[in-house]
Amino acid sequence: MSRYTSATPADRAEMLAAIGVDSTAELFEQIPEPLRLGRPLALPAGMSEAEVYERLAELASRNADAEEQVCFLGAGMYDHYVPAIVDAITQRSEFLTPYTPYQPEISQGGLQAMFEFQTAISELTALPVSNAGLYEGPSSVASAAYLAIGATKGRRRFVVSRGVHPHSRETLATYSAGYGATIEEVGLEHGLTDAAALAEAVDGETAAVFLQSPNFLGAVEDVEALGAAAKRHGALLVVAVDPMTLGVLRPPGECGADIALGEGQPLGNRLDFGGPSFGFFCGTEELLRKMPGRIAGETDDVDGRRGFVLALQTREQHIRREKATHNICTAQALNALAATIHLAWLGREGFRELGELLVRRTAYARERLASAPGVELLHEAPVAREFAVRLDAPVDRVLERCAERGIAAGYPLGREYPEHEDGLLVAITERRTREQIDALAEALGAAVQTERGELVGNSPTNAPGGP
Amino acid sequence: MAIVESPMQRERAQTIFEKSKPGRRAAVLPAAEVPEPPLEELIPARLLRSEPPRLPEVAEPEIVRHYNRLSRRNFDLDTGFYPLGSCTMKHNPRLNERVAALPGHARLHPAQDPKRAQGALGLMWLLQGSLAEICGLPHVSLQPSAGSHGELAGLLLTRAFHADRGEARTKVLAPDTSHGTNPASVTMAGYEIVKVATDERGGVEMDDLRAKVDDEVACLMLTNPNTLGLFDQNIAEIAALIHAVGGTLYYDGANLNAVMGHSRPGDMGFDIVHVNLHKSFSQPHGGGGPGAGPIAVSDRMEPFLPRPQVVRRARRDAGRNGGEARGSRHPRSGSGKADGRPDPKIGSGRDDHFYDLDFDRPKSIGRLRGFQGNFGVFVRSYAYILSLGADGLAEASETAVLNANYLKARLAEGRAGKRLPVAFERHCMHEFVLSGKPMKKELGIATLDLAKRLLDFGFHPPTVYFPLLVEEALMIEPTETETKESLDAFAEAIERILAEAEEDPETAKQAPYTTPVRRLDEVKATRKPVVRQPLD
Which residues form the domain of A167? Predict the structure, then answer.
């Protein structure tokens, strides 16, 4: 008997008698004999709780986490402080262990939490309609594309800024193979989406234009100006945003966005090596009945009490099957709850203050790094919480040197932006103190200098007999 | 029935926004420590927000009280029996929460250099191997975020597989008993769904299948055991039919909890399987997620797996320009040892391998999402697999099947046996389906009424009105972690509700009475949707 089951030999005997069989093996006889495994799985024997803990703790100890290193990594996921009440509340079994609220009378807590989440996200983005969350950021971008095909009566062409997160663009490309859609990318100029190229790229077959602000290189885009091209051709304007900047940056709903979405991790969710987190997804009133995912709605019970239910379920796969607006079922309710609690904890003033703090510390860090030897800005566009620099030495080697000093200095841009092989993306959160920023500037400068020295020393041009 | 309002029913639901008062706050932020120029000097004014979002203004004690109060308006698995069919509401071990919260997992940035994330990548490698062994398919991608995401992945793999052979097929077959996600995924992947009928034993109707199989069929999606809880004994023949026309066979793993360590989808002939880690592998459901839907695939599907893929290489030397060794893409039983057992050295200081992310996959369908997947879910599920081990997993499935058949036998007795007959009379696997058709006709109460009345007895109802081909369906999955006493109590509650309905059907028709709210007007919520708190 494993520790999570309770059937004693006596229970089993009674249960088998009630069923009318002699053994459980008889129940498995419905599986044709050749398809029965007939041997134990080639996995180790079960372990005690203490042993499992030790094994997992050992694995965890071989990761350099943000408690061990000073973390300037971002690129969509950020080392923000998650308040203690988030853990305390989300670990309550009443939130942790129920299924999707199919029985609303006994799920009012979860449903009301969804309703509050929708309200908070709608406030952040200044769009009237929010769903209760999707898997995560990049797949939410692909989900917006699916919506756009339907909303534009079958147009199948997407225009995407290269400022949109590379993971989002790649995910959109993956999904588009199924949608039968094509994608045209528009490049960046001085860190910002090339407005002329974008206007050129959008046409009457374009279902949606995708922007991100701040974009992947950290630059704050002029969404309203860029979006005009989408409006002219009746394409949807889809804008990915970093929720933590929305206390200070003009929200997408005020810039003409039809859909605003993004990665929710910065709101109350831990890094978790990339998930689980959640994606948020908001739209205009007109798009309400085309939205993907769960949506909680307010209603009354038979006695007139206020209550909440899953609204507009006729959009969803369990009702509409092949005609559903999306295939999503299990999403990220608990992660969305974490965000709701975090936002309530920050509150109206705290949220704005946090945004301001990020902008100012980022400005300080940018200036500080730019003055380090061998480090210069990759672009000079305005930034909010993340910025890109160029290093005058191989990025991977500089990162390694910083790591040896306990600093994860940033995200190397080379893999996804070959044109920025020397680029490094640096992210700031409220946890990154001035002292840590100063240490980063010092470490980066020193590492670049050391690598330069080695490079110069090893360079064939300096070798005897060189040109 | 006399109704006395409970204190919770008397309390009008109030959102956190309605508890807001200007000037209250919870968060105290760190001091800026840096120069504080006006924001307009850093970002042009036209790109700045004029008014902050109207988030609630509430101090911490009231936030805590608010959400604790909300939590009490939820029914949860830790409180009582939750026999939702096809959802596998098994116990969620708290050990798994503890290990997932270790800073080495919880505060690990997803873009960390693989060299400094060997524990995490090693864990993913081990989980891949364990799932490969359980599914009987050699290659695993952990990337899909949930079952439906795994389905979409599998269909896109199928599309890439056919395209690679110069074919563009149009149709995907699925039985009429399939989960709603199946046809929805088919449409998203750009295919047309073709429904296959169910025969009198609850399996795929073979003649109908034969009539629909042709070289336009890209894939057949199947759950086995199916949503009736029955193992389709023709599976080998079904697989042969599909493979003969060059199609792929997709296994919806929602019901994997029936067969772990007993039978493997790969051995049944499936090419692609998704596994719901939030079902069979104990990740808590969280009121609607998070989950994870890894896929396991056969050799011929491997080149198309999503990017990046976790691979194992010979250890690179001290790490500068190493890592060039060809990665192994065959996790086979998560091993490294000849007997197929995971090597305890993996991820330890004695491990002589390097775990890496492989982006160099030219035939890959590409990314399905950001970064590497729902790692926190992987930690919990791997802890669960370690806890149970080979024998424990097999025993879990065995007990799940025992519990389901026992409850089915209990419900074949007395009033339930008469009013709620089982849809297909044979031994079931981990779940079974009853029909409320006689109950509705003879007592005048529908399956919905029975479900709502169960709430007053402290039970979560089964899945209702699914699968669609059973009239007034109740789909019951008790799972292995329930005691015989719970199953007996549930059977007794059904018996009492039916007895009560014989006296007065109105009692069930007006139910529930004891829940925080009573039956809700779902039509209103859809006709005149209010989907956020108005703040004006």
Answer: 84-341
Interchain CB distance below 8 Å, B63 and A85: yes
Structural domains for chain B: 122-373 (3.40.640.10), 385-515 (3.90.1150.10)
- B90 vs A: CB within 8 A: yes
What is the Cα–Cα distance from B495 to B457, expressed in whole angstroms?
Answer: 12
Q: Are A410 and A393 in contact (CB under 8 A)?
A: no
Quote ipTM for the complex: 0.96
Total residues found in chain A within this entry: 467
Query: Does A19 fall in a domain?
Result: no
CATH number at residue A422: 3.90.1150.10
Nearest to B78 among A47, A93, A433 (CB): A93
- Of A286, A309, A341, at which residue does a domain stop? A341
Q: Is A416 on the interface with B (CB under 8 A)?
A: no
**Of A247, A249, A276, A250, whose CA–CA distance to A263 is shortest?**
A276
- Is residue B218 within 8 Å of residue B170, measured between CB atoms? yes
Q: Which residues pair with A282 in a beta bridge?
A: A130, A260
Q: A310 and A392: one domain?
A: no
B12 vs A306, A314, A330: nearest CB: A306
For residue B144, whether the previous peptide bond is cis, meaning omega lies within 30 degrees of 0, is no
Q: What backbone phi and psi angles, to 5 degrees, belong to A84? A: -55, -35
- Cβ A276 vs Cβ A77: under 8 Å: no
How many residues are listed for chain B in this entry? 536
pLDDT score at B315: 77
Same structural domain, A323 and A360: no
Rounded to the nearest integer, the mean pLDDT of chain B is 93
In this complex, is the C-beta atom of A118 within 8 Å of any C-beta atom belonging to chain B? yes
Which of B9, B109, B337, B345 to mutate to test binding with chain A, by most A CBs within 10 Å of its CB?
Answer: B109
What is the amino acid identity at position B419? R
Neighbours of B127 (CB within 10 A): 27
Burial of B324 (0-12, 13-18, 19+ CB in 10 A): exposed
Confirm or reject contact between A367 and chain B (CB < 8 A): no
Rounded to whole angstroms, how far apart are CA atoms B227 and B210? 21
Any B CB within 8 A of A196 CB: no
Give the CATH number of the domain where residue A219 resides. 3.40.640.10
Q: Residue B348's pLDDT is what?
A: 61
Question: Is B333 exposed, middle or buried, given 0-12, 13-18 or 19+ CB atoms closer than 10 A?
Answer: buried
Q: Is residue A10 part of a domain?
A: no
Same-domain status, A314 and A361:
no
When scoring B73, B148, B403 by the number of chain A Cβ atoms within 10 A, the one with the most, hence best to mutate, is B73
Rounded-to-integer distance, Cα A347 and Cα B27, Å = 7
Kindly list the residues from chain A whose CB atom is less than 8 angstroms away from the CB atom of residue B193: 321-322
DSSP tag of B199 = -
**Residue A24 belongs to some domain of the structure:** no
Q: Is A236 helix (H, G, I), strand (E, B) or coil?
A: strand
- Provide the domain count of chain A: 2
Look at residue B344 in the predicted model and tell me its pLDDT: 58
Report whether pLDDT(A338) > 60: yes
Per-residue pLDDT of B155-202, as tens digits, reads 999 999 999 999 999 999 999 999 999 999 999 999 999 999 999 989
With CA atoms as reference, the chain B residue closest to A328 would be B148
